[in-house]
């Protein structure tokens, strides 16, 4: 079976109302369709790489290509897990967790997006809480990093609920303008103090070598 060679296909994160897992090819198409419908208001750009400025058809194709690229470039010392997020069996967005030299640094980064019609319903908090549980409880991470531009209060609200603290700023050229990103950091003690969303992880044990952690504990 394919899962014997790529056990990440069997990894599942379950919260009270969401399931996070790698999508099938058909579900990847649904994720691309969702991106084509819109991810944010057109008058702002929440991403460093402005992929959502592409026309809808190209935007959808970029989602598919990026997903395939992340799978094909996977290495235990440089990985990015792009999980489709499902609510009631429907694809509602994407949650990424990524790391370089994780076995040494024990540090992950997260990023995500939701289809416009699924926003402001608490889904963003729940899906990030799920991958934080994977990181800290499943992979024994020490820190999780994130960030958002100053005009993205929704992302900051999610981070605050989960215990992140400010970790400096950096400047970016976004659509030809200077934009300030505020970096955020979540330590293990702060995660433990703020975790409030029940998450279960299944199928992790056979995946551990792919994360560079053959001796890690399961969630």
TrEMBL record:
Record-given protein name: Protein N-acetyltransferase, RimJ/RimL family
Alphabetical list of Pfam families matching this protein: Acetyltransf_3 (PF13302)
PANTHER family: RIBOSOMAL-PROTEIN-SERINE ACETYLTRANSFERASE (PTHR43441:SF11)
One of the record's GO molecular function terms: protein N-terminal-serine acetyltransferase activity
Gene3D superfamilies: 3.40.630.30
GO cellular component: cytoplasm
Segments crossing the lipid bilayer: none
Domain N-acetyltransferase: 18-189
Source organism superkingdom: Bacteria
Keywords attached to this entry: Transferase
């Amino acid at each position: 079976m394919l899962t014997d060679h790529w056990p990440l296909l069997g990894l599942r994160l379950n919260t009270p109302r969401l399931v996070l897992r790698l999508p099938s090819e058909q579900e990847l198409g649904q994720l691309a369709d969702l991106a084509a419908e819109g991810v944010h208001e057109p008058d702002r750009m929440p991403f460093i790489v402005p992929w959502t400025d592409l026309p809808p058809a190209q935007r959808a194709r970029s989602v598919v290509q990026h997903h395939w690229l992340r799978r094909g470039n996977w290495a235990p010392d440089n990985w990015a897990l792009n999980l489709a997020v499902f609510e009631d069996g429907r694809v509602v967005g994407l949650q990424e967790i990524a790391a370089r030299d994780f076995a040494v640094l024990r540090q992950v980064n997260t990023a995500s997006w939701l289809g416009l019609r699924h926003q402001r319903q608490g889904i963003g908090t729940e899906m990030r809480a799920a991958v934080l549980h994977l990181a800290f409880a499943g992979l024994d991470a020490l820190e999780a990093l994130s960030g958002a531009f100053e005009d993205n209060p929704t992302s900051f609200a999610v981070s605050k609920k989960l215990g992140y603290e400010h970790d400096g700023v950096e400047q970016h050229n976004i659509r030809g303008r200077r934009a300030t990103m505020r970096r955020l950091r979540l330590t293990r003690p702060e995660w433990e103090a703020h975790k409030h969303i029940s998450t279960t992880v299944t199928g992790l044990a056979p995946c551990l070598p792919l994360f560079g952690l053959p001796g890690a504990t399961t969630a």
